[in-house]
Amino acid sequence: MTVVGAGADGAMGATDEPGPLPPVMQLGIGALALVVISGIYLAATAARNPNLAVPIVVLAVAAVLIGVAAIRLAMLKRFAWGKFRMVFGWALLEYAVIASMLIYVFTYDHTPARIEALFIVSLVLFAVDIPMMFAFSVARFQPVPAERAGAQQ
To answer: Is the pTM of this model over 0.85?
Structure first.
């Protein structure tokens, strides 16, 4: 049995699988940094005619990082998925509201459509990445529910 971490109370980590947990936090932080870089670039150049190749490439790399983190996370068999879904769902709702308000501001401000589209992509990545990291951070230290006797065959 592998202990992947201990909480403040010394409780075992959330998985009995051999090996470490996937690098969800590292991939998520990398993606978040790229989303912020893209947003700063777009905000700094929105007044003139910006080259959109840079933010498109940066956002594509961020999307790949989030996708890899999600796939690696989904491969975990024994994990506190109930807690993960609960935290992810509520955090996703919160960040969807924040992203929606920002999209409204960009629309109200008459941001050019091609720049606003990239801002929207940035906000969608932002609104999925952070809840995923929150949920992973909480669920990784939760006890894993015991498997039901009839579930294994």
So the answer is: no
